[in-house]
Amino acid sequence: MTQIFKIYYANRNKQHDAENPIPGAELLFNLDYSLEQTETKVLVALCFILFTVSITIALKEFRKLRSLVDMIPVSALLLFVGILTGVTTKYIFGNHGLVKLTPIDIPHYWIQHFLITPIILYSSYEIYEIEFFKQFGNVMMMAILGTILNAIFICLSLWLFYTIHFLEEMTIVQCFTYATIISAVDPVAVLGVFEAVNADRSLYYLVFGEALFNDGVTFVLFEGVKELAKLEHDRDIPLDAYIFVGLSMVTGPLGACIIGFLCGILSGLATKYTSEKSEVLQLILVIGLALLAYFLNICLGFSSILGLMICGLTQMRYTIPNLTYKLQMTTTNTLKSVAVLCEILIFVLLGTESTDVQLDKSWAFTTAVFISITVWRFVITFGLVFFINLFRYRKISKRWQTLIFFGGLRGAFAFVMNLEYDGPFKMLFHDTTLSIICATNILNGILAKPLVIFLQLQKHFYNKEKTFFNVTCHVAGLARTGLFKLVKDDTGSKIRAWMYRIEKKYIFKFLCRNNAGRTQLVRDFDKFEKQEALNLIENHSLVYLLHLQKQVEENRVAIKQQTIK
Asked: pTM above 0.90?
């Protein structure tokens, strides 16, 4: 009978062909182990995870190390930890080290599918805020048009000023392939830096949204041109190959958006007709359908990153309001914990990998790439923002533009695409990508906080309860729409109002069991109520009161000792 899964016995005994040994002292304590065993690999991986998490906790908790975190972002410090770990392990376990040890191989698709996927899903949940949707058009323009322009101009710069003179065998298609790889801005690194520097929320969501959707665009471009880059430079490429590459850049994101939206709709429909009795299964269902959108897009050849982002946004709109408050917090906190762990592991792994970079062979190409991405990031950022400001009521100031320019940090997304590339100059691209990741995270990360303070771009703190503020904004928006209708034909507002009526009348009734997700007023008030309930529990619990009493007694003892001295 044909089966999808087949469970079998895996005999791991090395002496399975010999006579069975007589039981002896090895039953008391096993010394016959190696890194080839699955259990040993899991043990080493678990120790590595605990080590990196402990280092991260120490950086945030210890006072002497906290001053270091104030100057350097955690992502850059984790790169330093990875580099130090790589150098140490190479000295101890390398070819000329003290102990011979075979390294544990990590396939690139493990990083892509198991480490990056939770970060993308949590980021799509995190970005579902009114400040992001207010700037959605600007974000899309900077993410799509800005990414394409960056890739084109970086490619032309490398080809005209470097490869023609020093690396003649590299074709322009291979230049464009690497330009798409290095154009990928890492939202994880950007998120960490902008949270550390306490930047303004509007600026935060503008840069974060641009970085997140930038990765979807670069993956689409990379998947389209990577097959062409594998061909030899003297091979003729027919015209229909270029046509199919161009069509793939249209069908990839379109199919991904459709599949991601349908999976998000399915999760909303499933959670609508389930009760509190199935809370644990609801959590599995929500995350499972998001992963279904991701892997289904991979199987069909669409953009998996973009599909997962669309599914996450759809779930935040229609699925999460169907869950109980407790399950909403469990879902977001679980995803946040997994995403933070994946972020820590990625940066430490990047640091350990960078110890194998051969700078003596790649320094010239790395310098050319670094100059190109810096110059074109500056030109395209200020040029696009100048065009956006022509149609924007609240202008993006020069101070904001400067910080957006510094937000072009490279990270795991560029590295994963580079690992997936299997064509000419693979090792050159590999070493250059790691060098650029380290340089941008360390230099830009260190400069970001002083720049925010100097330009006075810190976050403005509002009252905790924003209901009155939201009501005022809602009324002002309605008044503005009415005035536009009286003065001139505002087609955009009419389309938005029509779409909202359709959503409210049909989609919400079909997918949502209550009104929790319909308006920003209700969502913000619910968020405020949940936070107040948590504060009430924390500040009035017996454990908190005992802890407060202990602190008071310790302060009294300290005051007495100072008085005696």
From this structure: no
